[in-house]
Every structure is written in structure tokens, then in C-alpha cells.
Amino acid sequence: MLSFFKRKTYPKYFKKYLNSFKNKKPKSINKTRFVVFDTETTGLDTNTDRILSIGAIAINNGIIDVADSFEIYLKQDQFNADTVEIHGILKEGNIEKISEEKAIEHFINYLKNAVLIAHHAAFDVKMINSILKRMNLQKLKNKSIDTGILYKKLEGKQNDHFSLDKLCEEFNIPLHDRHTASGDAYITAILFLKIISKLKQQRLLHYSDLFRTNNSKGLL
């Protein structure tokens, strides 16, 4: 019975991650470290599908920081040949792959207490949380921003719902390395900054404005 009340023990890296949220974070867009990330997966089922790769890049002081970036490939215990055409990641090959447990450790160490950004963020966050659940760890504590929802904050866009490709077309963003985790993270980082810039042209933008949410309409 006493074991039920014992405090749960976590690996050192995860304790360090949890402790990072005890520090007061700046409530300013320019002073916040944003981490824009993307996952390539075996499919769209967050319960049964698995992450193949994680790519991320930070935005510091309103600038995309290429030196503060992340890319990792995971060993494929599950393989879906139908999705290779999209992401190009083979089960074998020359790319170095690591275990799911090591991948999440590296990602958590990189992420720290940054604000997460992704297009259709709920999917990518849930895929990471599924790994954490399998490892008996807590869910991510980071705040997150969905660029699809952020786009709807623009005047006249409240009822629009577009894929990343469509928004890149609207904002004239080249689709280099599309459907790679790192490529999509970089593209999404550019999109985020362009939406922020446009919002600032339309009104006074506060840090808290970034986190107002609308109902999502699925993955496109």
C-alpha cells in the first residue's frame, strides 16, 4: 500500500526538463525561445503509428536560428511501405537511426521549456506524448502554437482552413525539402514569422494573443 504513495521517479534528463518550468519564462514574443518542429510518421493514427523522424529549429529574438536546430531518425520497428513515397525514409539505408527512448531523450534535452510551434500541432504533440506514455513519463509541459489556428487570427481569415502547402503558396514560401521533418519545421518557422508580421500590421499583438485557440477541423 505504501508503494502507491511513493513519489514517481524519472530519469535525470526528464527531471531537469520538469525543473526548467519552475523558472519564470519571459512573457514577450521577442524574448521567448520558440521551437518549431515536425514529425514524419508511419501514418496518422496517434495510438498505433510511430514517429520516423523529428526535425526542429528555434526562433530566438524573432529570428530563425539555424545554429539552434535538431534532427533525428528513429529505428523502425513498424514499417509502412505506403508512406515511403511521402517522406522517403526507408526501413534500412545509410541514415543513422536510434531507438525511440534515445530519440525522446535527445529531443527533451533540446526542447527544454521552449514554446512549441507546428502546423496541426495537436497531431505532432500527441505523437511525442505517445512515446512518453510508453516510457511511463509525463506528457509534454510546453505551451504550443498551431500555425493553422494562428493564421485564423488574421482579419478575414476566421473561417479559412488551409494546408501547409496552401499557406506557403499564399505567403510565397518556397517548398524546399517538403515532407522531411527538418524541411517542414523550417518552412513552418518562416510561415510563423510571416503570420506574426502580418498580425502586427493589423493590431497591437501581445504574447497572450498567440495562445487563443479555435476548434480544429482535422488534418489536411
UniProtKB/TrEMBL annotation:
<dbReference type="GO" id="GO:0003677">
    <property type="term" value="F:DNA binding"/>
</dbReference>
<dbReference type="InterPro" id="IPR006054">
    <property type="entry name" value="DnaQ"/>
</dbReference>
<keyword id="KW-0269">Exonuclease</keyword>
<dbReference type="GO" id="GO:0003887">
    <property type="term" value="F:DNA-directed DNA polymerase activity"/>
</dbReference>
<dbReference type="InterPro" id="IPR012337">
    <property type="entry name" value="RNaseH-like_sf"/>
</dbReference>
<comment type="subunit">
    <text>DNA polymerase III contains a core (composed of alpha, epsilon and theta chains) that associates with a tau subunit. This core dimerizes to form the POLIII' complex. PolIII' associates with the gamma complex (composed of gamma, delta, delta', psi and chi chains) and with the beta chain to form the complete DNA polymerase III complex.</text>
</comment>
<dbReference type="GO" id="GO:0008408">
    <property type="term" value="F:3'-5' exonuclease activity"/>
</dbReference>
<comment type="function">
    <text>DNA polymerase III is a complex, multichain enzyme responsible for most of the replicative synthesis in bacteria. The epsilon subunit contain the editing function and is a proofreading 3'-5' exonuclease.</text>
</comment>
<keyword id="KW-0378">Hydrolase</keyword>
<dbReference type="InterPro" id="IPR036397">
    <property type="entry name" value="RNaseH_sf"/>
</dbReference>
<dbReference type="Pfam" id="PF00929">
    <property type="entry name" value="RNase_T"/>
</dbReference>
<dbReference type="InterPro" id="IPR013520">
    <property type="entry name" value="Ribonucl_H"/>
</dbReference>
<feature type="domain" description="Exonuclease">
    <location>
        <begin position="33"/>
        <end position="201"/>
    </location>
</feature>
<dbReference type="GO" id="GO:0006260">
    <property type="term" value="P:DNA replication"/>
</dbReference>
<protein>
    <submittedName>
        <fullName>DNA polymerase-3 subunit epsilon</fullName>
    </submittedName>
</protein>
<keyword id="KW-0540">Nuclease</keyword>
<dbReference type="GO" id="GO:0005829">
    <property type="term" value="C:cytosol"/>
</dbReference>
